[in-house]
Amino acid sequence: SKGTYPYYMLKEIDEQPAVMRRVVDAYLPADGSVAVNQSLLQALDQADKLYIVAAGTSYHAGLVGARIFEEMAGLPAEAYLASEFGYHMPLLAKHPLFLLLSQSGETADSREVLVNVKKQGYPVLTMTNTAGSTLSREADYTMLLHAGPEIAVASTKAYTAQIAVQAVLAKALGVFRKREVAKDFDLRHDLSIAAAGMQTLVDEKEQVKNLVAQYIPNQQHAFYIGRGEDYPLSLEAALKLKEVSYVHTEGFAAGELKHGTIALIEEDTPVMAFITDDVTAAHTRSNLQETEARGAHTMTIVSEHLAQPTDNIVLPDINPLLSALVGIIPAQLIAYYAALGKKLDVDKPRNLAKSVTVE
Ligand code: M6R
Protein backbone atom coordinates (compact mmCIF):
# COMPACT_ATOMS: atom_id res chain seq x y z
CA SER A 1 0.00 0.00 0.00
CA LYS A 2 1.06 3.58 -0.40
CA GLY A 3 0.55 4.28 3.31
CA THR A 4 0.53 8.02 3.98
CA TYR A 5 1.84 8.87 0.53
CA PRO A 6 -0.54 10.55 -1.94
CA TYR A 7 1.01 8.62 -4.84
CA TYR A 8 3.11 5.51 -5.32
CA MET A 9 5.57 7.48 -7.43
CA LEU A 10 6.61 9.61 -4.46
CA LYS A 11 6.80 6.57 -2.18
CA GLU A 12 8.97 4.75 -4.70
CA ILE A 13 11.27 7.77 -5.13
CA ASP A 14 11.70 7.87 -1.36
CA GLU A 15 12.45 4.14 -1.17
CA GLN A 16 15.59 4.36 -3.27
CA PRO A 17 18.12 4.63 -0.42
CA ALA A 18 16.63 1.43 1.04
CA VAL A 19 16.79 -0.24 -2.38
CA MET A 20 20.52 0.51 -2.57
CA ARG A 21 20.99 -1.13 0.83
CA ARG A 22 19.00 -4.18 -0.31
CA VAL A 23 21.23 -4.55 -3.36
CA VAL A 24 24.27 -4.38 -1.06
CA ASP A 25 22.76 -7.03 1.25
CA ALA A 26 21.89 -9.31 -1.64
CA TYR A 27 25.14 -9.15 -3.58
CA LEU A 28 27.96 -7.53 -1.64
CA PRO A 29 28.83 -9.31 1.61
CA ALA A 30 31.07 -7.54 4.15
CA ASP A 31 34.06 -9.77 3.34
CA GLY A 32 34.51 -7.88 0.06
CA SER A 33 33.37 -10.73 -2.21
CA VAL A 34 30.60 -10.44 -4.79
CA ALA A 35 27.75 -12.97 -4.71
CA VAL A 36 27.30 -13.68 -8.41
CA ASN A 37 26.84 -17.04 -10.12
CA GLN A 38 30.27 -18.40 -11.18
CA SER A 39 29.07 -20.01 -14.38
CA LEU A 40 27.60 -16.65 -15.43
CA LEU A 41 31.01 -15.06 -14.85
CA GLN A 42 32.66 -17.78 -16.94
CA ALA A 43 30.19 -17.19 -19.76
CA LEU A 44 30.77 -13.44 -19.59
CA ASP A 45 34.52 -13.93 -19.50
CA GLN A 46 34.29 -15.81 -22.79
CA ALA A 47 32.09 -13.17 -24.42
CA ASP A 48 33.66 -10.52 -26.60
CA LYS A 49 30.72 -8.16 -26.45
CA LEU A 50 27.81 -7.54 -24.12
CA TYR A 51 24.57 -6.53 -25.82
CA ILE A 52 22.30 -4.80 -23.34
CA VAL A 53 18.77 -4.75 -24.71
CA ALA A 54 15.81 -2.97 -23.11
CA ALA A 55 13.01 -0.44 -23.49
CA GLY A 56 12.22 2.97 -21.98
CA THR A 57 13.75 3.63 -18.61
CA SER A 58 15.43 0.22 -18.58
CA TYR A 59 17.21 1.15 -21.82
CA HIS A 60 18.44 4.34 -20.15
CA ALA A 61 19.77 2.27 -17.25
CA GLY A 62 21.48 0.05 -19.83
CA LEU A 63 23.25 3.07 -21.34
CA VAL A 64 24.69 3.82 -17.91
CA GLY A 65 25.55 0.17 -17.28
CA ALA A 66 27.41 -0.23 -20.58
CA ARG A 67 30.03 2.27 -19.48
CA ILE A 68 30.49 0.52 -16.15
CA PHE A 69 31.03 -2.87 -17.84
CA GLU A 70 33.62 -1.40 -20.19
CA GLU A 71 35.52 0.40 -17.47
CA MET A 72 35.41 -2.20 -14.68
CA ALA A 73 35.38 -5.45 -16.61
CA GLY A 74 37.07 -4.43 -19.86
CA LEU A 75 34.15 -5.95 -21.74
CA PRO A 76 32.88 -3.98 -24.75
CA ALA A 77 29.23 -3.26 -24.04
CA GLU A 78 26.50 -1.40 -25.85
CA ALA A 79 22.84 -0.71 -25.08
CA TYR A 80 20.14 -1.20 -27.71
CA LEU A 81 16.42 -0.53 -27.93
CA ALA A 82 14.55 -3.82 -27.83
CA SER A 83 11.90 -2.69 -30.31
CA GLU A 84 14.61 -2.04 -32.91
CA PHE A 85 16.93 -4.90 -32.06
CA GLY A 86 14.24 -7.53 -32.50
CA TYR A 87 13.93 -6.82 -36.20
CA HIS A 88 17.12 -5.04 -37.25
CA MET A 89 19.91 -6.89 -35.59
CA PRO A 90 23.37 -5.41 -36.07
CA LEU A 91 26.22 -7.58 -37.26
CA LEU A 92 27.04 -9.46 -34.08
CA ALA A 93 30.41 -10.02 -32.43
CA LYS A 94 31.81 -13.59 -32.55
CA HIS A 95 30.80 -14.41 -28.98
CA PRO A 96 27.94 -12.18 -27.93
CA LEU A 97 26.24 -12.35 -24.57
CA PHE A 98 22.86 -10.70 -24.14
CA LEU A 99 21.67 -8.84 -21.09
CA LEU A 100 17.95 -8.12 -21.15
CA LEU A 101 17.04 -5.48 -18.62
CA SER A 102 13.40 -5.25 -17.62
CA GLN A 103 11.64 -4.12 -14.48
CA SER A 104 8.55 -6.21 -15.17
CA GLY A 105 10.25 -9.06 -17.00
CA GLU A 106 7.17 -9.08 -19.25
CA THR A 107 7.93 -6.48 -21.93
CA ALA A 108 7.01 -7.94 -25.32
CA ASP A 109 9.74 -6.12 -27.26
CA SER A 110 12.38 -7.53 -24.93
CA ARG A 111 10.89 -11.02 -24.99
CA GLU A 112 10.97 -11.00 -28.78
CA VAL A 113 14.73 -10.39 -28.64
CA LEU A 114 15.18 -13.10 -26.03
CA VAL A 115 13.37 -15.72 -28.10
CA ASN A 116 15.27 -14.68 -31.19
CA VAL A 117 18.77 -14.81 -29.77
CA LYS A 118 18.12 -18.01 -27.81
CA LYS A 119 17.07 -19.63 -31.08
CA GLN A 120 20.49 -18.70 -32.40
CA GLY A 121 22.09 -20.38 -29.39
CA TYR A 122 23.50 -17.30 -27.66
CA PRO A 123 23.71 -17.04 -23.86
CA VAL A 124 21.17 -14.72 -22.26
CA LEU A 125 21.11 -13.06 -18.86
CA THR A 126 18.10 -11.15 -17.60
CA MET A 127 17.84 -8.66 -14.78
CA THR A 128 14.26 -8.24 -13.67
CA ASN A 129 12.44 -7.01 -10.61
CA THR A 130 10.05 -9.97 -10.41
CA ALA A 131 11.31 -13.44 -9.58
CA GLY A 132 9.56 -15.89 -11.88
CA SER A 133 8.77 -13.30 -14.59
CA THR A 134 8.68 -14.54 -18.18
CA LEU A 135 12.09 -13.08 -18.99
CA SER A 136 13.72 -14.53 -15.92
CA ARG A 137 12.23 -17.99 -16.54
CA GLU A 138 13.32 -18.19 -20.16
CA ALA A 139 16.89 -16.94 -19.77
CA ASP A 140 20.05 -18.95 -19.05
CA TYR A 141 20.94 -16.71 -16.13
CA THR A 142 18.92 -14.26 -14.11
CA MET A 143 19.59 -11.67 -11.44
CA LEU A 144 16.95 -10.02 -9.27
CA LEU A 145 16.85 -6.23 -8.97
CA HIS A 146 15.55 -6.18 -5.38
CA ALA A 147 13.72 -2.88 -5.89
CA GLY A 148 10.51 -4.34 -4.42
CA PRO A 149 7.14 -3.95 -6.17
CA GLU A 150 7.02 -0.88 -8.41
CA ILE A 151 3.42 0.23 -8.88
CA ALA A 152 3.63 3.72 -10.44
CA VAL A 153 3.74 3.59 -14.23
CA ALA A 154 6.76 5.90 -14.21
CA SER A 155 9.74 3.77 -13.29
CA THR A 156 11.97 5.22 -10.57
CA LYS A 157 13.47 2.76 -8.11
CA ALA A 158 13.85 0.05 -10.76
CA TYR A 159 16.11 2.43 -12.71
CA THR A 160 18.50 2.98 -9.83
CA ALA A 161 18.37 -0.73 -8.92
CA GLN A 162 19.26 -1.64 -12.52
CA ILE A 163 22.30 0.62 -12.42
CA ALA A 164 23.39 -0.80 -9.07
CA VAL A 165 22.95 -4.46 -10.10
CA GLN A 166 24.79 -3.92 -13.39
CA ALA A 167 27.62 -2.37 -11.36
CA VAL A 168 27.61 -5.48 -9.13
CA LEU A 169 28.04 -7.71 -12.16
CA ALA A 170 30.69 -5.47 -13.73
CA LYS A 171 32.64 -5.51 -10.48
CA ALA A 172 32.33 -9.32 -10.20
CA LEU A 173 33.51 -9.84 -13.77
CA GLY A 174 36.37 -7.37 -13.38
CA VAL A 175 37.57 -9.20 -10.25
CA PHE A 176 37.14 -12.55 -12.03
CA ARG A 177 39.38 -11.15 -14.76
CA LYS A 178 41.85 -9.97 -12.10
CA ARG A 179 41.62 -6.34 -13.15
CA GLU A 180 43.15 -3.90 -10.67
CA VAL A 181 40.53 -1.26 -11.37
CA ALA A 182 37.79 -3.72 -10.39
CA LYS A 183 39.56 -4.84 -7.22
CA ASP A 184 39.84 -1.18 -6.21
CA PHE A 185 36.16 -0.54 -6.99
CA ASP A 186 34.68 -0.59 -3.48
CA LEU A 187 31.10 -0.94 -4.61
CA ARG A 188 29.76 -1.83 -1.18
CA HIS A 189 31.10 1.49 0.06
CA ASP A 190 30.09 3.44 -3.07
CA LEU A 191 26.51 2.20 -2.90
CA SER A 192 26.21 3.20 0.73
CA ILE A 193 27.53 6.66 -0.18
CA ALA A 194 24.95 6.73 -2.96
CA ALA A 195 22.19 5.72 -0.52
CA ALA A 196 23.17 8.50 1.87
CA GLY A 197 23.29 11.01 -1.00
CA MET A 198 19.86 9.92 -2.22
CA GLN A 199 18.53 10.35 1.31
CA THR A 200 19.80 13.93 1.47
CA LEU A 201 18.15 14.69 -1.87
CA VAL A 202 14.77 13.17 -1.01
CA ASP A 203 14.84 15.01 2.32
CA GLU A 204 15.27 18.28 0.40
CA LYS A 205 12.25 17.75 -1.85
CA GLU A 206 10.63 21.06 -0.84
CA GLN A 207 13.43 22.87 -2.62
CA VAL A 208 12.70 20.95 -5.81
CA LYS A 209 9.00 21.66 -5.44
CA ASN A 210 9.76 25.40 -5.33
CA LEU A 211 11.97 25.20 -8.42
CA VAL A 212 9.22 23.39 -10.30
CA ALA A 213 6.79 26.20 -9.44
CA GLN A 214 9.22 28.72 -10.92
CA TYR A 215 10.24 26.81 -14.01
CA ILE A 216 7.57 24.46 -15.28
CA PRO A 217 3.88 25.44 -14.88
CA ASN A 218 3.37 27.47 -18.05
CA GLN A 219 5.76 25.63 -20.31
CA GLN A 220 5.00 23.33 -23.19
CA HIS A 221 8.61 22.37 -23.89
CA ALA A 222 11.68 21.68 -21.78
CA PHE A 223 15.20 20.30 -22.19
CA TYR A 224 17.67 18.35 -20.13
CA ILE A 225 21.28 18.45 -21.26
CA GLY A 226 24.48 16.73 -20.18
CA ARG A 227 27.70 15.19 -21.45
CA GLY A 228 29.41 11.89 -20.76
CA GLU A 229 27.58 10.08 -17.96
CA ASP A 230 25.17 13.00 -17.81
CA TYR A 231 23.88 12.40 -21.33
CA PRO A 232 22.02 9.13 -20.66
CA LEU A 233 20.92 10.69 -17.38
CA SER A 234 19.39 13.57 -19.38
CA LEU A 235 17.47 11.08 -21.52
CA GLU A 236 15.96 9.46 -18.45
CA ALA A 237 15.21 12.79 -16.77
CA ALA A 238 13.37 13.92 -19.91
CA LEU A 239 11.35 10.70 -20.17
CA LYS A 240 10.23 11.08 -16.56
CA LEU A 241 9.11 14.67 -16.98
CA LYS A 242 7.26 14.12 -20.24
CA GLU A 243 5.47 10.91 -19.32
CA VAL A 244 3.94 12.17 -16.09
CA SER A 245 3.52 15.94 -16.71
CA TYR A 246 2.94 15.93 -20.50
CA VAL A 247 5.47 18.75 -20.87
CA HIS A 248 7.25 17.90 -24.09
CA THR A 249 10.82 17.32 -22.90
CA GLU A 250 13.93 16.26 -24.76
CA GLY A 251 17.15 14.92 -23.33
CA PHE A 252 20.17 16.11 -25.26
CA ALA A 253 23.91 15.71 -25.42
CA ALA A 254 24.86 19.23 -24.33
CA GLY A 255 27.31 19.73 -27.18
CA GLU A 256 24.81 18.60 -29.79
CA LEU A 257 22.15 21.17 -28.99
CA LYS A 258 23.84 23.88 -31.03
CA HIS A 259 23.76 21.64 -34.11
CA GLY A 260 20.10 22.33 -34.67
CA THR A 261 17.84 21.90 -31.70
CA ILE A 262 18.84 25.20 -30.11
CA ALA A 263 16.45 26.71 -32.67
CA LEU A 264 13.61 25.57 -30.39
CA ILE A 265 14.74 27.65 -27.43
CA GLU A 266 12.36 30.52 -26.75
CA GLU A 267 11.84 33.02 -23.97
CA ASP A 268 11.57 31.07 -20.68
CA THR A 269 12.03 27.56 -22.16
CA PRO A 270 13.41 25.54 -19.24
CA VAL A 271 16.86 24.08 -19.96
CA MET A 272 18.17 21.95 -17.13
CA ALA A 273 21.81 20.88 -17.17
CA PHE A 274 23.45 17.99 -15.33
CA ILE A 275 27.06 18.77 -14.49
CA THR A 276 28.82 15.89 -12.74
CA ASP A 277 31.72 15.25 -15.09
CA ASP A 278 35.00 17.08 -14.34
CA VAL A 279 36.33 16.96 -17.87
CA THR A 280 33.30 18.46 -19.59
CA ALA A 281 31.79 20.63 -16.83
CA ALA A 282 33.05 23.90 -18.33
CA HIS A 283 31.79 22.94 -21.79
CA THR A 284 28.34 22.11 -20.49
CA ARG A 285 28.22 25.40 -18.64
CA SER A 286 29.02 27.29 -21.81
CA ASN A 287 26.40 25.31 -23.75
CA LEU A 288 23.92 26.30 -21.09
CA GLN A 289 24.92 29.97 -21.43
CA GLU A 290 24.31 29.72 -25.18
CA THR A 291 20.71 28.75 -24.42
CA GLU A 292 20.39 31.48 -21.81
CA ALA A 293 21.50 34.05 -24.37
CA ARG A 294 18.50 32.91 -26.43
CA GLY A 295 16.08 33.37 -23.57
CA ALA A 296 16.18 29.97 -21.85
CA HIS A 297 15.32 29.70 -18.18
CA THR A 298 18.33 27.66 -17.11
CA MET A 299 18.69 25.34 -14.13
CA THR A 300 21.85 23.57 -12.98
CA ILE A 301 22.05 20.23 -11.21
CA VAL A 302 25.69 19.96 -10.19
CA SER A 303 28.00 17.65 -8.21
CA GLU A 304 29.17 19.24 -5.00
CA HIS A 305 32.84 19.43 -5.99
CA LEU A 306 31.94 21.34 -9.16
CA ALA A 307 29.24 23.54 -7.63
CA GLN A 308 29.23 27.33 -7.76
CA PRO A 309 27.17 29.61 -5.53
CA THR A 310 24.55 30.27 -8.22
CA ASP A 311 23.83 26.60 -8.97
CA ASN A 312 20.28 25.43 -8.29
CA ILE A 313 20.61 21.84 -7.09
CA VAL A 314 23.75 20.34 -5.56
CA LEU A 315 24.33 16.59 -5.80
CA PRO A 316 26.37 14.83 -3.13
CA ASP A 317 29.66 13.59 -4.58
CA ILE A 318 29.83 9.88 -5.38
CA ASN A 319 31.88 7.62 -7.66
CA PRO A 320 31.49 9.33 -11.08
CA LEU A 321 30.52 6.04 -12.76
CA LEU A 322 27.49 5.95 -10.48
CA SER A 323 26.57 9.63 -10.64
CA ALA A 324 23.20 8.86 -12.24
CA LEU A 325 22.12 7.23 -8.96
CA VAL A 326 21.98 10.63 -7.25
CA GLY A 327 21.48 12.77 -10.36
CA ILE A 328 18.16 11.18 -11.21
CA ILE A 329 16.56 11.92 -7.82
CA PRO A 330 15.90 15.65 -8.39
CA ALA A 331 14.70 14.87 -11.93
CA GLN A 332 12.23 12.29 -10.62
CA LEU A 333 11.01 14.86 -8.10
CA ILE A 334 10.74 17.55 -10.79
CA ALA A 335 8.54 15.19 -12.82
CA TYR A 336 6.43 14.33 -9.79
CA TYR A 337 5.81 17.92 -8.71
CA ALA A 338 5.18 19.09 -12.28
CA ALA A 339 2.44 16.45 -12.65
CA LEU A 340 1.05 17.13 -9.19
CA GLY A 341 0.90 20.86 -9.91
CA LYS A 342 -1.23 20.12 -12.96
CA LYS A 343 -3.49 17.87 -10.86
CA LEU A 344 -2.75 14.89 -13.08
CA ASP A 345 -2.98 11.26 -12.04
CA VAL A 346 0.74 10.92 -11.29
CA ASP A 347 0.70 7.13 -10.98
CA LYS A 348 -1.32 6.47 -14.12
CA PRO A 349 -0.41 8.87 -16.90
CA ARG A 350 -2.70 8.84 -19.93
CA ASN A 351 -2.10 6.34 -22.73
CA LEU A 352 0.39 4.27 -20.71
CA ALA A 353 0.43 0.82 -19.11
CA LYS A 354 2.83 -0.45 -16.46
CA SER A 355 4.05 -3.27 -18.60
CA VAL A 356 3.86 -3.13 -22.35
CA THR A 357 2.98 -6.61 -23.49
CA VAL A 358 2.38 -5.84 -27.17
CA GLU A 359 5.13 -5.27 -29.72
O1 M6R B 1 9.26 -3.49 -17.44
P1 M6R B 1 10.30 -2.89 -18.34
O2 M6R B 1 11.47 -2.37 -17.63
O3 M6R B 1 10.71 -3.82 -19.45
O4 M6R B 1 9.57 -1.65 -19.02
C1 M6R B 1 10.22 -0.88 -19.99
C2 M6R B 1 9.45 0.38 -20.29
O5 M6R B 1 8.16 0.10 -20.75
C3 M6R B 1 9.35 1.28 -19.05
O6 M6R B 1 10.61 1.60 -18.53
C4 M6R B 1 8.62 2.59 -19.40
O7 M6R B 1 9.40 3.36 -20.29
C5 M6R B 1 8.26 3.39 -18.16
N1 M6R B 1 6.97 4.00 -18.32
C6 M6R B 1 9.27 4.48 -17.86
O8 M6R B 1 8.94 5.22 -16.74
From TrEMBL:
Which GO BP terms, alphabetically? carbohydrate metabolic process; fructose 6-phosphate metabolic process; protein N-linked glycosylation; UDP-N-acetylglucosamine metabolic process
Catalytic center residues = K354
This enzyme catalyses:
D-fructose 6-phosphate + L-glutamine = D-glucosamine 6-phosphate + L-glutamate
Q: What is its EC number?
A: 2.6.1.16
Tell me the superkingdom of the source.
Bacteria
Q: Can you supply one Gene Ontology CC term for this chain's record?
A: cytosol
| Residue stretches making up the SIS domain | 40-179, 212-349
State one molecular function term (GO): carbohydrate derivative binding
Localization of this protein: Cytoplasm
Keywords noted in UniProt: Aminotransferase, Cytoplasm, Glutamine amidotransferase, Repeat, Transferase
Subunit organization: Homodimer.
According to its UniProt entry, what is the function of this protein? Catalyzes the first step in hexosamine metabolism, converting fructose-6P into glucosamine-6P using glutamine as a nitrogen source.
Protein name from the UniProt record: Glutamine--fructose-6-phosphate aminotransferase [isomerizing]
Full-sequence range covered: 245 to 603 of 603
